[in-house]
């Protein structure tokens, strides 16, 4: 969605997490959640900064918590909140970062209370398609002013034998939020198989549906080097074999993040060659093709992914986005409907369907979709901004400005929100307020052509024709450079009007 157009030990008082070697029956999601809730903690600093962690050891009254290194890498006064709501100060001297630049760390707190310790599983056994759960504490949002424990379910998309930078090798489909970094990734037995680290996003900062974590076996293999003893036997390192499809998949994600979409496609081709039924690889290749402008090729990939897995919401959502870009708005809406029928809590899909409805002139339907997105995520700046556009189209300029205010409050660096508010102010006759908004937008994004063009009109209407024409000419140049012929020609017409 484009805005505007995470027995002997007992005798010595040590409780440790043991690798489960016996066969275990899969637990229900409710049972796994009950486990996750008892081992997951909130980590926050005075800045404030929010993260999550998982209790992996108890020795006497000292508990050891495993988290993501980026949660605690900055020296500060950290505090851990345990499942019973009690808070404990963290002695920063107890913080240990894992070697080899792996995004893992351990911290400690002291308590006489008895807290549950995680059971550590074998992350090497977590294959593509197996169940994965993630638990953590999302950071407060615009509407929800405190961190509330969250549990999400999904599946393992990839478990690469060759990790990316910082040790990331697990990819999974669970829905995560900022603040859940450091939280537990659990398997269907309720065992700890990884630590959540980040959610993957596209170039427009919209989630792709992929999330990344560091396998627990990576921690176990590095813990001895860091002087961290959790009393767990380290699994034998996997025997070197030929590259797996998962390895190519995770390489593609790295190339994707660097903007190398052609490189991503090349390695995804290798993943598909190894595993022709790898639905997520088709989706990833489709997204890369979409970003390169090959929407027909992208749709073909999404079609294949849906044929392999008819319940993949991300395939429907991505295909809908590609169809919308091709002008097939009805087909796009049908795809968004399919995605939402499978999962009615997809914020970005409501947003994209809202945009498609607005493009069809159904601003009331668009507003209903943006309302749904905001209800699920009250911190969705895009939804506020796009709802503001729809309201403005319906003549509700004051309601539009209220939405743009909300978008800016959530994201003070949203240039397009400032620009949209400026346009609404121009339409209300507040040219000075509009110019202030365009100035803010251009300070954030000096190449925002629409801000130059509308500021130019506002200046000209205030009597500063020369300043207005200069802004309009800058806008025309940017539109031409960006290949927007229609707006380039329209801007030239406005320049000629004010030159008369």
Main traits of this protein?
8-stranded antiparallel sheet, 6-stranded antiparallel β-barrel, Thrombin, subunit H, Serine Threonine Protein Phosphatase 5, Tetratricopeptide repeat, 14 strands, single chain, 500 residues, globular, disordered N terminus, alpha+beta, 3 domains
Structure description:
The chain has three domains: 8-223, Thrombin, subunit H (Beta Barrel); 241-343, Tetratricopeptide repeat domain (Serine Threonine Protein Phosphatase 5, Tetratricopeptide repeat), CATH 1.25.40; 413-500, Alpha Horseshoe (Serine Threonine Protein Phosphatase 5, Tetratricopeptide repeat), CATH 1.25.40.10. It contains 19 helices and 14 strands. The protein has helices spanning 8-11, 29-39, 69-72, 216-223, 245-257, 261-274, 279-291, 295-308, 313-325, 329-342, 347-359, 363-376, 381-393, 397-410, 415-427, 431-444, 449-461, 465-481, 485-499; strands at residues 14-16, 40-44, 50-59, 62-67, 79-81, 87-89, 96-97, 105-110, 131-136, 150-159, 170-172, 184-186, 192-201, 207-215. Strand 5 (79-81) and strand 6 (87-89) form a beta hairpin. Helix 12 (363-376) packs antiparallel against helix 13 and helix 13 (381-393) runs parallel beside helix 15 (415-427). The chain is globular, with a radius of gyration of 25 Å. The model is unreliable at 1-24 and 202-206 (pLDDT under 50).
């Amino acid at each position: 969605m484009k805005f505007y157009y995470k027995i002997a030990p007992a005798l010595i008082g040590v409780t440790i997490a043991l690798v489960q070697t016996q066969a275990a029956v899969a637990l229900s999601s409710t049972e796994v959640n009950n486990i996750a809730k008892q081992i997951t903690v909130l980590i926050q600093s005075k800045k404030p900064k929010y993260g999550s962690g998982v209790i992996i050891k108890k020795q006497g009254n000292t508990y050891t918590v495993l988290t993501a290194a980026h949660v605690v890498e900055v020296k500060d006064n950290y505090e851990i909140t345990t499942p019973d709501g009690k808070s404990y100060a963290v002695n920063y001297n107890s913080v240990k970062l894992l070697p080899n630049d792996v995004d893992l760390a351990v911290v400690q707190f002291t308590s006489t209370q008895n807290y549950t310790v995680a059971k550590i599983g074998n992350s090497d056994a977590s294959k593509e398609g197996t169940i994965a759960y993630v638990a953590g504490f999302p950071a407060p949002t615009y509407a929800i002013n405190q961190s509330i424990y969250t549990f999400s379910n999904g599946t393992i998309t990839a478990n690469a034998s060759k990790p990316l930078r910082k040790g990331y090798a697990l990819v999974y489909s669970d829905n995560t939020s900022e603040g859940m970094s450091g939280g537990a990734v659990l398997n269907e037995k309720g065992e700890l198989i990884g630590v959540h680290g980040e959610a993957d996003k596209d170039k427009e900062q919209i989630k792709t549906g992929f999330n990344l974590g560091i396998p627990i076996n990576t921690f176990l293999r590095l813990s001895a080097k860091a002087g961290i003893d959790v009393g767990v036997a380290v699994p034998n390192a996997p025997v070197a074999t030929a590259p797996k499809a998962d390895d190519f998949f995770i390489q593609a994600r790295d190339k994707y993040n660097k903007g190398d979409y052609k490189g991503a496609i090349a390695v995804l081709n290798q993943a598909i060659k190894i595993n022709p039924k790898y639905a997520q690889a088709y989706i990833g290749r489709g997204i890369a093709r979409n970003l390169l402008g090959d929407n027909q090729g992208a749709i073909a990939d999404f079609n294949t992914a849906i044929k392999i897995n008819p319940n993949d919401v991300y395939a429907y959502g991505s295909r809908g986005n590609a169809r919308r870009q091709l002008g097939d708005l009805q087909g796009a809406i049908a795809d968004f409907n399919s995605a939402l029928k499978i999962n009615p809590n997809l914020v970005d899909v409501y947003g994209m369907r809202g945009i498609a409805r607005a493009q069809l002139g159904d601003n009331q339907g668009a507003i209903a979709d943006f309302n749904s997105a905001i209800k699920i995520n009250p911190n969705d700046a895009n939804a506020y901004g796009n709802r503001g556009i729809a309201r403005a189209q319906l003549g509700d300029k004051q309601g539009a400005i209220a939405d743009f205010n909300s978008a800016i409050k959530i994201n003070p660096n949203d240039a397009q929100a400032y620009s949209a508010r400026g346009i609404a102010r121009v339409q209300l006759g507040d040219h000075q307020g509009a110019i202030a908004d365009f100035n803010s937008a251009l300070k954030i994004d000096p190449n925002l052509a629409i801000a130059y063009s509308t500021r130019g009109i506002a200046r000209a209407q205030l009597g500063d024709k020369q300043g207005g024409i200069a802004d309009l000419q800058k806008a025309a140049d940017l539109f031409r450079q960006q290949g927007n012929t229609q707006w380039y020609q329209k801007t030239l017409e406005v320049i000629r009007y004010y030159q008369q």
